[in-house]
Specification:
- Among the domains are: 123 residues, Up-down Bundle (de novo design (two linked rop proteins)), CATH 1.20.1440.90; 187 residues, no CATH class; 228 residues, no CATH class.
- Helix content is 65%, strand content 6%.
- It is built from 37 helices and eight strands.
- An eight-stranded parallel β-barrel has the order 1-2-3-4-5-6-7-8, surrounded by six helices.
């Protein structure tokens, strides 16, 4: 790979940038475009080490008239979004979703060959893929700063780039595509990039469904077709028709943890929307199949099903179409609160799958395999993956909300105060009630609104087919009683539906005790009878890192997984680990392939659940080609981790990690929790106070609106530090750990050994290296210069920057490199190209924050909007912000 960006990427950046320049000139005049170019030139030369240019950039920005501040921020924000489109287009075209390390791109065909060479039979490969259960859980965490209306325009711009590239022999097509490109960029420029209102949970769900409609609906059958062809080549057989190695679930409309906007009514509405959209999409498929399957040859089973007709396939499909239309009408009536008085609807996956399977088998039986394996097979694959609900909807609620219900209930019934009981008493009560045949909850119980809402959620579960719902996740789970409480509420209110219940272990202490908690649960015979020997456990990355620091949290997550694997093996229970990863390194983010292969051996045994959050959904699944590659990466990683698992860590590596984590944790806590200047510094130097006004998602930025930084969610916590380029949550404490070890005898050697031979440690260092390259302490220092007055706070800022420099030196020492990202030039180049466009936004943001504080939050609407746009632009430029 050249150290310059690939020619096609460079050309597309230029095409988009030139078009934006013409649009802005038409709107605001060439003189304004010249101002933008002056700012960019100052920033570019400043990045080349010219301190005079850096000062001139800041001075130039500070002297801009107020009327220019909003359009200047918009221009740089828009360019960064266009640069992202060009890069996304390039990666889709060259199949580079994860340009992380040269040669690290997993290719499924090569992996299948390696697996066979390692002694796995062709049958074993097919069985492993057929039984694989990877669920990607789409979540609407508030990191997607771009409005849906703009995302649609950006997708259309991507299509224009494809048309321009393929028009060499048809210049008139290129001219038309260029004209459409100019139109779309003008539309984007004249569209407000900041939402005026927060999206509702239903809006978020609609956005998730749109990703399925616009991208995954096509990518899923393409992925299976590619997999089929590979298996035919290597194993001589196809993937079974009902196999779905990769499926999709969602939290959008089901995640009520700390989000009062997600109610039982909202969950019900989102479930109905999924049914409506699924029906709408299948109607298009069925209509196409009815048009195409005009054959008369059929087996006896299909003839019996269709009756005495000339075109039996069309007859079966016509009936399916009628039922699917009724299903769509039913869902619409339910959404509108009307009574449905139409014909029978399709309620389960099998009601759609079975007639299609009958058509498929008939075509194969009469020798029409080519037709069977065309569009009909694609629809069968979609049904296998999406069912009739598009996704399985998970539900999540905090453990304390369930305990509150039982507390209120025991108090009402005169049984005592549940919250005052110890764990043994709680378990005794819950297990007795689980075994009891009489109802516990009075029929006409007048409980609090909070308790009623929890019970109403379980009523929604009772009203649904189980295939519409995924897992019930308990956040802040700490004891077996937290799981048993949900089991009891499901029994009391959830009817015949019993969902898998997954405790979510998030804090350092909870991760350390996760194995013990699950061990106690699995030792309870009545609990075992509920779970069919399958247990799901969720590992929290965001809150554990916020609680303990990234290095200590990463090691705790690893050890928790090892413990859970051992416990479930001992009990003979199948374990599925659910990884609650975010987009950033500070929240467990990073390339999926490397992340999965760095898990403990045995923790990925053909099954895996993982969250895909915020803007990462668009980057990984927003377009069919990239979604196809993302699915291949997941399939590769899980197949490799299952058949060719990584080696277990050596005992002395464990001792090293124990010591590193101990030092890092102490250093992190010493600053974040024990330094009295830390919270005031955080609030003074970052835009944390203004973040609450950026209408990113439906969830409040804090779990409790009356709390301090400790109640701040992990996402805005990281978002705020990212905005000033200090990225503190992802590295604080690591510098002390590594530099201390490097100063000791044999330290460098053992760290380098762990880096090359242990995927967990190597991946952690790779993440850290990328993060350090995106960080910029000089920019953080400028925010401090502009926004912080108190000498004690400035002294803390200086110490933090010194810690950062110490860590960078230590990482380069371990990696034996002169500079960061030496071996990953594409990422290095992508950062370098964006910096001259991000730097002015940092300068303007610091200025606007100061003006906002001087005016006690009463700056003009235009300046307030400009501040919001700087946040959106910086997030777009750095991409994985939350």
């Amino acid at each position: 790979m050249s150290h310059d960006l690939h020619e096609s990427l460079r050309d597309n950046v230029r095409i988009l940038g030139d078009s934006l320049g013409r649009t802005i000139a038409d709107d605001l005049g060439q003189a304004f475009v010249d101002k933008i170019e002056t700012i960019r030139a100052h920033a570019k030369r400043g990045r080349q080490g010219d301190s005079l240019q850096q000062r001139e950039l800041i001075e130039y920005l500070r002297q801009l008239p107020e009327r220019d501040l909003l359009p200047v921020t918009r221009a740089f924000n828009q360019f960064l979004n266009l640069a992202n489109i060009a890069e996304q287009h390039y990666r889709a075209r060259f199949r580079r979703v994860e340009d992380y390390k040269p040669g690290s791109q997993p290719v499924l065909g090569e992996l299948l060959e390696r697996a066979q060479q390692a002694g796995n039979s062709p049958r074993k490969l097919v069985e492993t893929l057929a039984n694989m259960r990877v669920e990607l859980v789409l979540t609407a965490h508030p990191t997607e700063v771009i409005r849906r209306t703009l995302i649609q325009k950006y997708d259309a711009i991507d299509e224009c780039l494809t048309a321009i590239e393929s028009s060499e022999d048809y210049p008139e097509r290129g001219t038309r595509a260029q004209g459409r490109l100019e139109e779309l960029i003008s539309q984007a420029w004249h569209t407000d990039e900041i939402r005026h209102e927060r999206p509702t949970p239903v809006d978020e769900a609609k956005w998730g469904f749109a990703v399925i409609e616009n991208s995954l609906w096509q990518a899923v059958p393409d992925f299976h077709r590619d997999l089929d062809n590979l298996l035919l080549d290597t194993a001589g057989e196809r993937l079974p028709l009902d196999a779905a190695p990769i499926r999709y679930a969602s939290w959008m409309g089901g995640d009520r943890d700390g989000n009062p906007n997600v109610t039982a009514r909202v969950t019900r509405e989102v479930l109905l929307l999924g049914r409506w959209m699924a029906a709408d999409l299948y109607l298009r498929d069925l209509d196409q199949l009815k048009t195409e399957l005009s054959m008369w040859k059929a087996n006896s089973a299909l003839k019996a099903e269709a009756g005495d007709v000339a075109e039996p396939y069309r007859e079966v499909l016509k009936r399916l179409l009628t039922r699917m239309e009724s299903t769509r009408d039913w869902a619409k009536a339910e959404l509108e609160g009307r009574n449905y008085d139409g014909g029978p609807i399709i309620e389960t996956r099998d009601q759609l799958y079975s007639p299609l399977l009958g058509c498929y088998r008939s075509l194969c039986d009469v020798g029409l395999d080519t037709i069977a394996n065309g569009a009909l097979l694609d629809t069968l694959r979609r049904v296998a993956v999406f069912g009739v609900t598009l996704t399985k909807l998970d539900l999540r609620q905090e453990a304390s909300r369930h305990a509150q219900v039982i507390e209120e209930l025991t108090s009402t019934l005169g049984l005592g105060h549940y919250r005052e009981w110890d764990e043994a008493q709680r378990q005794e009560f819950l297990l007795a009630e689980l075994a009891s045949r009489r109802p516990l909850i009075p029929r006409r119980w007048e409980c609090s609104a909070e308790t009623r809402e929890v019970l109403d959620t379980f009523k929604v579960i009772a009203q649904e087919h189980s295939e519409a719902l995924g897992t019930y996740i308990i956040s802040m789970a700490a004891e077996p009683s937290d799981v048993l409480t949900v089991a009891l509420l499901m029994k009391e209110v959830g009817g015949q539906v019993t969902l898998p219940i997954a405790p979510l272990f998030e804090t350092l202490n909870d991760l350390d005790h996760a194995g013990d908690v699950v061990d106690q649960l699995l030792a309870i015979p009545s609990y075992r009878s509920l779970i069919d020997d399958r247990q799901e456990v969720m590992i929290g990355y965001s809150d554990s890192a916020k609680d303990a620091g990234q290095l200590a949290a990463a090691w705790a997550q690893y050890r928790a997984q090892e413990s859970l694997v051992n416990v479930c093996n001992r009990h003979g229970v199948d374990l599925t680990l659910f990884h609650g990863r975010g987009g950033t390194v500070g929240r467990g983010g990073g390339p999926a392939h490397a992340a999965i292969l760095s898990q403990p051996p045995g923790s990925v045994n053909g099954s895996l659940r993982v969250t895909e959050q915020g803007e990462m959904i668009r980057f990984k699944f927003g377009q069919p080609d990239i979604a196809l590659r993302s699915m291949e990466i997941y399939a590769c990683a899980v197949l490799e981790a299952t058949l060719l698992p990584p080696r277990a860590p050596e005992p002395h590596w464990r001792e090293e990690m124990d010591q590193l984590a101990k030092v890092a944790h102490g250093a992190y806590v010493g600053v974040v929790r024990e330094d009295p200047d830390f919270v005031p510094y955080f609030r003074a130097v970052t835009p944390e106070g203004a973040l609450g006004r950026l209408p990113l998602g439906s969830r409040p930025t804090k779990r409790r609106q009356d709390g301090g930084v400790e109640t701040l969610r992990a996402i805005p916590w990281i978002f705020a530090w990212t905005q000033i380029r200090l990225m503190l949550p992802a590295w604080l404490g690591s510098g002390e750990a590594f530099s201390t070890r490097l100063e000791q005898p044999g330290g460098r050697e053992v760290l380098q050994e762990m880096r090359t031979e242990w995927p967990f440690f190597g991946t952690y260092l790779d993440m850290l290296e990328m993060l350090l390259a995106k960080a910029d302490v000089a920019i953080a220092a400028y925010y401090e210069h502009r926004l912080v007055d108190e000498p004690s706070l400035k002294a803390l800022g200086k110490k933090l920057r010194e810690r950062f420099a110490r860590l960078e030196d230590a990482v380069l020492d371990i990696l034996q490199q002169e500079k960061l990202l030496e071996n990953t030039p594409l990422i290095r180049q992508a950062i370098d190209v964006r910096n001259p466009y991000i730097d002015p936004l940092h300068g303007l943001q610091a200025e606007l924050l100061q003006r906002n504080r001087d005016a006690d939050g009463a700056i003009s609407a235009d300046l307030s909007r400009a501040l919001m746009v700087t946040m959106a632009g910086i997030a777009a430029g750095l991409r994985n912000t939350g």
